[in-house]
Amino acid sequence: MTATEYDIAIIGAGIVGSSLASHLAPHARVLLLDRDLAVRGSSGHNPGFVGQLNRLPPLTELARRSVRAYSTVPGGFENSGCLEVALTKPELEMLRARGALARASGMKATLVSQAEARRLAPAFVEDCVGGLHFPDDGSADPKVLAKHYQAQAASAGATLLAADVLAFKEGAVETSEGVIKAKRVAVCTGIWGTQLLPLPMAGAVVVGQGYAYSSTRRPRTASPIIRWPGVQVYGRDHGDRDGIGSYDHAPVHVPTSDIGGHSTAASAWNKAFTGALARALALLPEQTAARFYGRTLAGTGTEDAAAAIIQAREAGRAHAFNSLFQVTSDGYPLVGRVQDGVYAI
């Protein structure tokens, strides 16, 4: 057992754990530990989309404060904006209501025409009836931010340790580097939280969702992040390639027993997502979709498109994978004390 007794041991050195350590280190004896301090876990595989509007005002305010904080870190936040696209008139009315909610929350949001939506994101938007533009949204770089906060924490006196957590004991954490005394423990491990706290975090489950990168291309004028909320699809300009993901499929549960085998929040492609991804790619202009398939598929059906996705992935022309998320039954964050001296964030 180490001689030092820490006021708090923070497990998980991704963006959440590292940020927490940077805030607490000036005021307490802090230990930040992770099996890999190089940020390869949930944060290392996170696309970083920050949409600030939420139906709960406190979560909207939290997101707005996060953007302000991320924007002070060089390379930490790209203010690309976000464009939500409506495919039908009822969807456009839903966006109109979201725009009113955003403005009531002090956010900028503008309803745009079909022509303006195409102008904002010509590589992603083809058919639509309009959209809602959030100019202050964008994408964070979780790796850059986590390493920045780690450096801040270390300079304020925090101890950083690369180690596996084996178990909790009263007033201590058992790790692969020995037993460490700590008055409090904060678990900030993303999808691995259910392994460390199986009973307290039973309400949070890990699910898979399909995402794909296109083949590389020449850089172009950057597009805002794109969302098609009516069909649960989103897309992003990644600089030298495009990305698209879809929630338009039945939930795919990933058992807790399988999580330990993953070093990052992604796993091999699940063919259950192929149809959903084919429907998502049908929303894109033909030239953009072709970079995912490796060829033009004009006029083909969903089954043919699904087969082409698998062929493109197997040939190395595009990269499709199963992205892992932790969700709760009500869709809201699980945060707070889960047992004496132990907190989940």
Summarize the model shown.
By secondary structure, the protein is α+β, with helices and mostly antiparallel strands. 28% of the residues lie in helices and 29% in strands.
Strand content: 25-35%
- Kindly identify the CATH topology of the largest domain: D-Amino Acid Oxidase, Chain A, domain 2
Radius of gyration: 21 Å
Give the overall form: globular
- State the CATH architecture of the largest domain: 2-Layer Sandwich
Domain FAD dependent oxidoreductase: 7-286
Protein name: FAD dependent oxidoreductase
GO cellular component, one term: mitochondrion
Pfam family, one: DAO
How are the SSEs ordered, and which strands pair?
Blueprint (H helix, E strand, L loop, with lengths): L4 E7 L3 H10 L5 E5 L14 E2 L6 H14 L6 E2 L3 E5 L2 H16 L5 E3 L1 H7 L9 E5 L3 E3 L1 H14 L3 E4 L2 E5 L2 E4 L2 E10 L5 H4 L7 E10 L11 E4 L4 E5 L4 E5 L5 E3 L1 H4 L6 E2 L6 H8 L4 H8 L8 H13 L4 E10 L7 E4 L2 E3 L1
Parallel strand pairs: 1-2, 1-12, 2-9, 5-14, 12-21
Antiparallel strand pairs: 3-8, 4-8, 5-7, 6-7, 10-11, 11-12, 13-16, 13-17, 13-19, 14-15, 15-16, 18-19, 20-21
Helix pairs in contact: 1-5, 8-10
Protein name: FAD dependent oxidoreductase
